[in-house]
Write a structure and sequence with these properties.
single chain; alpha/beta; five-stranded mixed beta sheet; 5 strands; 61% helix; 6% strand
Length: 519
């Protein structure tokens, strides 16, 4: 048996193409039901409205940037993302619909296969080849990771370009590494995490002269950071005025906002709390104990350890300090953002485990057990229930797809059953789904559907209920809380009668569509 495993491993690692094919087939086997699923949740609120606008307006970016912003229901979220341009080109070529989704899903899976191949190659520099392969599989099928592989969003290409940059730097192709860092930052602003981690790793390369190290760090950092700053200048990314806050005030803001994130998202993924804590402690320990060994033997192994450790620290600083302070909202962080850092977290934890467990067989069995548990939990059956009908919370696993199905059902019902002269009041997510038909929740935009935030902005406290209208309640934020308050007010108001047009329920997700008439 051992000879069979050894032969399999040797044949597997002999060709990167073979390794790539295995990962692609694995992802295909796990995700094939997602082939033709249209944009879900934030995909339908950001890159696809922006991409559709570009297609319909001759790729006029200057015009796109003058449109209303995301919180006003506009198509500008991630307008300058590289993935938005890719989506626009696919929509232009295919005309949208099923073929567009198939092409974009397959492109994501091809990038995922490349990610698996690169991770295996990187891990094999420190672990046995079979362990490296199993660790890469465990990383990709961790429920939070696997959930993102069903989408057409920016998390996969962000990680793909960042890993490409690291691979090129390992091969001493500095300018090519810088190019891929720019691509990562063009995909999403958090690409600067990889920029910071790789630039700092370059500065730690003590086998090179000080001047050479600073030159490489400069080449790696400057182009990407310049692009991000230019990109930010086109949007309202203004920092809160630091002069108006004392240190105590800043700390209070950070603590409050990060506690909100913990309560709303992280607390519903129990093992992630352990993963984050263990990886941070391990990363700090590795950085303090290995940096001084950089100029000795095993240069490549030291680089991998230092880069991944720095990546974890940079990720946490970016999201839970810098970005948490920049944002005006308490919800500056979503579960899926961990997709970017999970490979580094898994790596440093397994690196520590590898030092503690000597028997190769025991480590391989441990990885197989982890893979098995991840597959069992791919739809979140081992997780505690989420308290709200929120796809953002449910992106911890494939359970989020239930939310998509519920949204698909009630938006179709609204289009088919509600008269076009009856106003329908919705939260911001439902406004996007009913006004941007590119995502195919409705066949054409529904002009009688109004975002409640727009209505309140125009009328203020003078808003009066029409004689006949419809309310949709699904999501508790972005106007959802106000709609819930309207429902409670109307239920106790004898001037109005209401009829439930539809109640929708699947898993943890529910939605209500109610028709209200004045008696």
């Amino acid at each position: 048996m051992s000879n069979i495993i050894i032969n399999f491993t040797n044949n597997l690692f002999r060709s990167s193409g073979r390794l790539f094919a295995i990962f692609f087939l694995l992802i295909l086997a796990l995700k094939w039901p997602f082939f033709s699923i249209p944009p879900v949740w934030d995909e339908a609120f950001s890159i696809f409205p922006a991409a559709d606008f570009l297609v319909n307006h001759g790729f006029d970016y200057s015009l796109l940037l003058t449109q209303p912003h995301y919180h006003d229901g506009g198509p500008t979220a991630h307008a300058l993302s590289l993935l938005t341009l890719v989506a626009a080109l696919v929509l232009k070529i295919t005309g949208g619909g099923t073929w567009a989704w198939v092409i974009l899903h397959i492109s994501q899976w091809l990038m995922t296969a490349a990610i698996g191949t690169m991770l295996t190659r990187i891990y094999s520099k420190l672990f046995d080849e079979l362990q490296a392969f199993l660790l890469a599989i465990a990383t990709l099928i961790y429920p939070l990771m696997l959930a993102q592989l069903g989408g057409m969003y920016i998390e996969v290409p962000l990680l793909f370009f960042s890993l490409l940059a690291f691979q090129q730097y390992r091969s001493d192709r500095i300018w090519l590494a810088s190019l891929f860092l720019v691509a990562a930052s063009m995909t999403k602003e958090s690409g600067v995490i990889a920029v910071g981690a790789l630039s700092m790793s370059a500065l730690c390369g003590q086998s090179k002269t000080t001047r050479k190290r600073f030159e490489e760090a400069f080449i790696l950092a400057l182009p990407a950071i310049t692009f991000v700053l230019i990109k930010m200048s086109h949007f309202d990314f203004a920092l809160l005025s630091s002069t108006s806050h004392k240190l105590g005030d800043i700390l209070q803001i950070l603590i409050y906002r990060n506690l909100s994130v913990y309560q709303d998202y992280i607390s519903h993924i129990p093992e992630l709390i352990v993963i984050v804590a263990a990886s941070v402690v391990t990363a700090i320990s590795l950085l303090s104990s290995r940096t001084h060994q950089y100029n000795k033997n095993r240069q490549e192994q030291a680089l991998i350890v230092i880069y991944n450790s720095l990546f974890i620290i940079m990720f946490l600083l970016f999201h839970f300090v810098v970005f948490a302070y920049m944002q005006s909202s308490d919800r500056h962080f979503l579960t899926r953002y961990f997709f970017y850092v999970i490979p580094s977290m898994f790596f440093v934890i397994y690196y520590a485990v590898d030092k503690m467990i000597e028997k190769t067989g025991a480590k391989e069995i441990l990885l197989l057990i982890i893979i098995g548990v991840c597959l069992i939990n791919r739809s979140g059956i081992l997780y505690p229930p989420i308290p709200y009908s929120s796809i953002a919370m449910a992106e911890r696993s494939e359970e989020y797809i239930d939310g998509y199905k519920v949204q698909k059902e009630y938006t179709r019902m609204i289009e088919k059953q509600v008269s076009k002269d009856v106003p329908v009041y919705v939260s911001l997510p439902d406004y996007f789904l009913t006004h941007y038909s590119v995502s195919q929740y409705v066949s054409k935009p529904l002009p009688n559907v109004y975002y409640i935030g727009h209505v309140l902005k125009v009328t203020g406290n003078k808003f009066k209920y029409p004689d006949h209208f419809v309310l949709v309640y699904n999501y508790p934020w972005m106007g959802g809380a106000y709609i819930k308050g309207m429902l409670q007010d109307i239920s106790g108001n004898k001037e109005f009668s209401f009829e439930v047009l539809g109640q929708f329920q699947k898993g943890y997700f529910s939605a209500s569509v109610l028709e209200i008439k004045k008696r």
